[in-house]
User: Fold these one by one.
Assistant:
Number 1:
Amino acid sequence: MRTTKNFSMVSGNRKGMELGRIYWCRRRDLNPHGFPHTPLKRACLPFHHFGTQWHNYETSGSPCQRIGWRVESPSILQLLILSRSDNSMATSSSPAPLTQSQHWVGAFFDMDNTLVPGPSIEIGFFRYLWKNGVVGWPELWRSLRYAVQHMPPISLSPLRGNKLYLLGHDVSTIEQLAHEYVELFVWPRVAVRALGRLSHHKQAGHIVAVVSGSPECLVKPLSEKLGVSLVFGAKLEARSGLYTGRVFAPLPYGEGKSRYMERVAAQYNLDLSRSYAYGDSPGDFHALQLVGHPFVVNPIRGMARIAKQQGWPITQWA
C-alpha cells in the first residue's frame, strides 16, 4: 500500500499529523540500517539518503526529528525490502560470523593413469585414428623421426610438445573423432574411486579442475562428462582450420602444470596450502608439491619412491 504525503508546519518544524499512516523518514543522521551515524560520518555525508526508521503515528505519535529530514510515502518495493530487513534484524542483531569458506579450496586432477587408469588416452586415440584411416605410416614416421632427433635418452618429452601426427589434418574432423573416441573408449575406463573423489570435492564446494598434458580435444570432452568446467589440456595450434603440429606454451605438464594451477589459484583466490592434487608420475611432481594435500595415484616411473621420500600418500584407482 502506498501512502500519500501529509505534513504540516508546527513551530517551524514538520511532523506527521495524520494518524494511522506509516511514513518513511529520510534523515541525514541515520545510516541505511536505522542507527545513528558517528559525528565524523555525519560531517562527511554530502547528501541525504534513505534510512530504515518507520513511524506509526497511531501508536507513537512522535514526530520525526530534525536535521535534514523529509517525510515521504514508501513505494511497494521499499515496503517489501524493509519488511525483509526488519524480519532479519528481529532474528539477529548482527550477521552470522563468516566461517572458513570451502570455495577457497582447490582440487586438481591429472587425467592419464589417474582419472583414467592405464596407458595414455592419446596413445589410444592415435590407434583410433589409424583404424579409421585418418593417420598412417607417414604420420607415425614423422613423429618418430622428430622424437629421435630431439629426445634425451629414454624420454618422450618432445612428443608431448609436438603433435606432428595431426599436421595438416582438419580441426573439426579430429575434434569429432575425439568426441567419439572419448565416448566409446575413455569414458568406460574412468576409475570408480576417481568418480567418488570428484563427487566428494564437488559436494564440499571445492573448485575442481582437470590439468593434463593430453590434447585439449581429448581432455575437454571427458571433463564435460565428469561435470568439470575448469579444464586445461595441451592447446594445439591451427591455421586456416588445419593443425600445424605445434603446441602452445606452457604445456600443462611438469612445471607447466603448476603454472596453470597457480593461475587458477589467483583467479579463484584459492588457498593452495589447503588444496588437493592427484597425479601418477614424476611429471606431476611440481603440481603435487604445490598443494597441502598431494595424492599419488597409480604411481609409475619411480613415483612411488618419490612419494615415500616426500611423505605423500599413495593410492590405487583401478
Number 2:
Amino acid sequence: MPLTKSRLSFGYLYDFRNPPQWRRPWADLYAETLEFIRWSESAGFEGAWVPEHHGAEDGYVPAPLPVLAAIAARTSRIRLGSAIALAPLYHPVRFAEECAILDILSNGRLEMAVAVGYRRREAQAYGIDFSTRGRRTDEFLEIIRRLWAGESFSYEGRHFSLKGASITPTPPRGHIPLYIGGFTDKAIERAAKFGDGYFGNEEICDLYAEKLRARGKDPAAARIRIQSLFMVIARDPERAMHELAPYYHHVNNTYGQWLAEDRASTGFADSALAPMTLETFKASGILRILTPSQAIDALNGMLAKAPVEHVMMMRPPGLPVAKMIEYADLFAKDVIPAFQ
C-alpha cells in the first residue's frame, strides 16, 4: 500500500479501569481522567477514544456513550468516539439517535468505531446469540447508516424488524464517520463493505487493502487508525520500563485472559497477549518503550507501508495522572511536531 500522506495525528484510549491493587474512588478516577483529556487537547493530541467491555472486575468502561458526552462538554477541538463499541449489544435506532445527539453536543467531532466483539459471556449477558453477532452487526450497520442520512423506512431482517424508523435530529453533517474494527477475514470484509475506515492493528492493513480493491475502492484513499496501546516514549527507556511495566502488565494479562476464552470462535489462536509474570512481560517486547527519535523512525516506517491517519496509545490503569502527563508531554513536544 503506497504512502499518500505524511501527516499523522495522535490520541489516547481511555478505558477507566480501576484495578483492586490501585483502587481509587470511582468519582475521582473519572474526574481526573476527564481532566487529563482536557489537558491532552491543549498539549496537541487530537483524539480521545473510549472502548467497551462488560463484567470486568477492574471496571473496564461498559458505557462509552455517556463518557463521550462528558468529554464533549470539556473539550472544543479534539475528535472523540468509541474504539470500539460492541455493535451486537445495541439496538440500531437507539444507537443512531444517541450518536446524533453526541455529534451535535460535540459540534461535529464524533467519529465512531464498532466491531462484533470477541467475548461470548458479554453477548450472553445481553441475551444475544454469540454465533449471530456478525450477521446482526451487518444489519445494524446498514440501519444506522440510513438513519444518519435522514431516511425514514421500514426494515425486515433476521435480527431487526422496524416500522417507520427515522431519527430527529439527524447528525448535522448527514453522517457520522464510522470505522470498523477487527482482525479476522470476515471482520476486514465488513470494514471494507460498511466502513469509512478501518480501526485495528498495523499488520492487518494489507488485508484491508485487498478487501478494498475487491470492492473497487482505492486503498491509497483508505482511512486507517492504528492502536498502539503498548507504545510509550521516554528519554530513559530502562527507567521507564521499571516504572511503567506493572501498569501495562495488568492490561496485557486481562486482555490475554479474555482472548483465551473463545479462541476458536474469534481467530485469536496466535495472539501474542497471554497472561504472564511481570518479569516475563518486561522481557517479552510487548511494551515498546522508545526514545523520541526511535518513535519518529518507527512511525515513518509505518506510514511508508499504509496510509495511517491516526495512532492511539493508552493511559494504563493505575498510573498516576501526574506521571502520565510527564510521558505524554514528552510525546507532544518531541514526536507530534514531526508529523504536523
